[in-house]
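Dig into these lines:

——
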Amino acid sequence: MKSLQSKILFFIFAGVLTLTFFSCDGRPKGVLNKNDMTNILFEMHKLDGSFVAKNIYYNSGDEKERYYKSILDKYNTTQADFDSSLIWYSKNPKKFEKIYETVYEQLNQLDEDVKKGKYHPIDSIEFFKVKTNIWNKATKYEFTKDSTRNKINFEITNIGFLYGDIYILKFLQRIAPEDSCDNQYIRLQINYKNGRVDSLIQKTYNDSLLRRYTIQFPAKRKLEIKSISGELLGSKAYKGKFNAFTDSITLIRQYQSNMQDSLRKVVLKANPVIRKENDKAKIDSLKKIKKVSKKLIEKVEKKLE
């Protein structure tokens, strides 16, 4: 009898212990349930899409980490629990497949809602960005067959440009079929003080359609920037006739104001020549101060005599 009671107690204890470490669907303690895992993965995939759209993938991992952490905080989950959940679900592919089927459906639905204008997301990444229109020329140009050929060249010298900036050129343009330009293009360039140039070119068309162009160009090199330049009506060849219209031109500099000082230090470390020039400038300025101070002292001494 005692042996039977002992066995019953053992099975009860074993059952309680099993329920402690495993949920009703076989999950160990600390592994996220299906709904939470689905929601977190959906949020993370949205965030990844936002990173790509905003060119944040060019920036440091530490910078992006806080965005991922905010998602985990939203669902009261630690990084360790999320990592453990990923490992467990990867070992249970049927459960993981069902989760990703739901995530895929949600992402598709989101895409449809955006296309239909039903969904207008507030991008939290934008709260960390400062946007400034640095375009300093006319915002509208209209050329006819009587006009002088003009590529709409521009160059904007450094007004705080820095590694990590994103430059966004936007405008409306229509080029008529009778325009003689050949292989039309738009060019946007980042010019560095050491002579290097990063260039981005986009093809345009002389088909009379009014098109909206947007070129987004991140400053990826850890170099000091001299200027931003380009052409809005570039072409490989011209034959005389001219018929083009460009309007609503903006050139946005997008940057993170709270990171400007740290980014300048990064650029300075990557450019020893610049550092030497800065050090030399400091030494020269100190020498000038000493000279001025010496003259003042001499004047005071003469007056005292």
User: Anything to note?
Assistant: The beta strands are 130-133, 141-143, 153-157, 166-175, 185-192, 197-203, 211-218, 225-234, 244-255. The radius of gyration is 31 Å.
